[in-house]
Amino acid sequence: MKNWTFTHTLVAIISMLGTLFLLVHLYSPEGYLKDTLKTGTLRSSNLSGKLLIAKQGSPFKDSIVVQVVHRYSSHPVEITLLDITALKSIDPFNFDAIFLIYRWEARNPPEAIQAFVKQHVKLKSKIVVLTTSWNGLEKMEGLDAITGASIGSDVSMFSDNIIKELDRLLYVEN
């Protein structure tokens, strides 16, 4: 142990920090959610309802999407999940309900959301929106929305409200 130098100590510390980082990254709930929330169609066949979920990723928003997807996993609902940037390539007339979940950015909704809603304003009765912002109050003018700050303990409350609205549009009963 007499030859243990500063270099050896530094290498040992960096190795331990690297191992710790990898363990936290691989086993964190956020890492798990990213793997479970890949975009695409979760069911495809002749089902009674079609739900489009367009989202921005974050641990809070992903937690809500997981609960929404879980709700309809035992119902005859086809779910298409995509990032909000892919909205421009979607025909919303193919869906019974549309769930938009995004973060308010610099006094505006994301451009993809703004363009989608403007282009399909006649469909706003089948759109359910959750807008998150620092103060929990921001939303698009002329569009009903559930609003709030991204507080982890509120996930169930937001999910329940969103699911109620989606159930109504998808004609799903408990």
UniProtKB/TrEMBL annotation:
Could you list the residue ranges that cross the membrane? 6-28
> Per UniProt, which keywords does this protein have?
Membrane, Transmembrane, Transmembrane helix
Protein name as it appears in the record: DUF4350 domain-containing protein
Q: What's the source species for this entry?
A: Maribacter chungangensis
